């Protein structure tokens, strides 16, 4: 294919992806009550699933402080068109999130014809695993990281006479940043998989720089969570587990590459 033909193919992949995002965004826009009352504003209420689970944990370990009676802030809108603008922008964000597996599939369809047969074979299931890790990370961010951040920031006061009246934009920014950050961080195993396939990283290097990686992980956890030690620990633990999983993935990839190379050498000797 010529360069123009590649651009034409890319254009249609982009068009189909845009249509998918618009379809999901339209559905989210029409489901306004569920989108905002149940989904977006869920972590702002004390009866949210995460808070109820922490309360049950507190009852089990005799720590009543883990139960929330109420969350000490009020969400408000200060602009005339603020709620309409927020409705549209939030629907678009939800459309991107729901359409992510399809978007990645379209990107993969564009890249796949340019790969060698063995590269295609080595990359089977990429769309599935990328989508699964994205969804798991998104759920972790929404149900664990975001509620902990919102609860900490809502309960923090410098003086009891000051009320927390949170702007809608600020609340949504915290929720989406936490959720999407975790979603992309959870893609670490797939990133390591492709880097190991390309020979750019090895398990030995990852083990050698494990201490440095832990420092980076702590910094990432501190950036995407509020200055609350418990929240940082809860976010850090799964990222560390993902790093250790990535080391094993790199080890398996390296072992398979060595086995394939040995098989090729054996076949060449047999032919000779």
From TrEMBL:
It is a multi-pass membrane protein. GO terms for biological process: intracellular protein transmembrane transport; protein transport by the Tat complex. GO terms for molecular function: proton motive force dependent protein transmembrane transporter activity. It is found in: Cell membrane; Membrane. InterPro entries: TatC. The chain crosses the membrane at residues 12-31, 84-105, 126-150, 170-196, 208-225, 231-250. Belongs to the TatC family. Forms a complex with TatA. PANTHER family: SEC-INDEPENDENT PROTEIN TRANSLOCASE PROTEIN TATC (PTHR30371), SEC-INDEPENDENT PROTEIN TRANSLOCASE PROTEIN TATC, CHLOROPLASTIC-RELATED (PTHR30371:SF0). This is Sec-independent protein translocase protein TatC. It comes from Hymenobacter busanensis.
